[in-house]
Amino acid sequence: MYHYNFEALNIPDNHPAKDEQDTFYINKNIVLRTQTSSVQARVMEKTQPPIRIISPGRVFRSDQVDATHSPSFHQVEGLAIDKNINFSDLKGTLAEFAKELFGPETKTKFRPHHFPFTEPSAEMDVSCFKCGGKGCRFCKGEGWIEILGCGMVHPHVLEMCGIDPKEYQGFAFGVGLERIALLKYEIDDMRLLYENDDRFLNQF
User: Fold this and answer.
1) Nearest Cα to 82, choosing from 173, 163, 157, 175?
2) What strands, in cross-sheet order, belong to the sheet with 108-115?
3) Structural element, H or E, at residue 150
4) From CA 10, how far away is CA 157, in angstroms rounded?
5) Exposed (0-12), middle (13-18) or buried (19+): which is 164, by Cβ within 10 Å?
6) Which GO biological-process labels does this protein carry (predicted)?
7) Which DSSP string do the residues of 52-115 spell out, in sequence order?
8) Predicted TM-score (pTM) of this structure
9) Domains of the chain
10) CA 59 from centre of chain
11) Average pLDDT over residues 127-137
12) CA 127 from chain center: how many Å?
């Protein structure tokens, strides 16, 4: 629904994500979800803290199909709401996530960003798992690869879901599964994931 995809996530009326060029509208009240964050809003409305969830699912955006974009792809998001949760908890959780995914030597860094539903917000980079951060073709010589968005749940989002932001805090993060697969397995074209070609799929 429109409400859970936008309004419940503190996304303002003039935000570009609401444009028809970015979102598939069924009618003015129903859209195909553009992010799995809509699951988080529903859970927070129906569940009192403490809350710990992972919400995987398919999302839809009005993108042209090419090697790195698809109008339908998969996301997984995490949400934790409790007393005394802070940004250090978020950083520690995601550092462990990165090590489990890309190897124990993986380093992380966080860059300030803006998302309407989190404040403060950040994007997380991981040290290149091909060159160890020295710089290579894979990381475009930077030594780092952008991997996900994250932040502390905005107090207004908590209030709209009936949770007192003076008593509870939380963090959230989201990552595209296809992006992880492309990076981890050095796949050049996202479309290969959907073609159901056994010659490709049996490599993994």
Assistant:
1) 163
2) 51-60, 72-82, 169-176, 144-153, 118-127, 108-115
3) strand 144-153
4) 6
5) exposed
6) phenylalanyl-tRNA aminoacylation
7) EEEEEEEEE-----SSS--SEEEEEEEEEEETT--HHHHHHHHHHHHHHHH-TT--EEEEEEEE
8) 0.87
9) 1-202 (3.30.930.10)
10) 11
11) 84
12) 18
d(CA 142, CA 144): 5
CA dist 30 to 17, 95, 116, Å?
15, 36, 20
Please answer whether residues 157 and 103 qualify as being in contact, where contact means their C-beta atoms are separated by less than 8 angstroms.
no
Provide the token pair at 63: 């993108």
- 181, containing H or E segment: helix 177-184
CA distances for 99 relative to 60, 96, 121, angstroms: 29, 5, 21
Choose among 3, 5, 65: nearest CA to 35.
5
Tokens representing 16 are 């570009």
* DSSP assigned state of 153: E
With vertex at residue 80, the alpha carbon angle to CA 51 and CA 1, rounded to the nearest 5 degrees, is: 80
Cα 32 from Cα 24, distance rounded (Å): 6
Q: What pLDDT, on the 0 to 100 scale, is given for residue 1?
A: 66
Portion of the chain with pLDDT greater than 90, in percent? 56
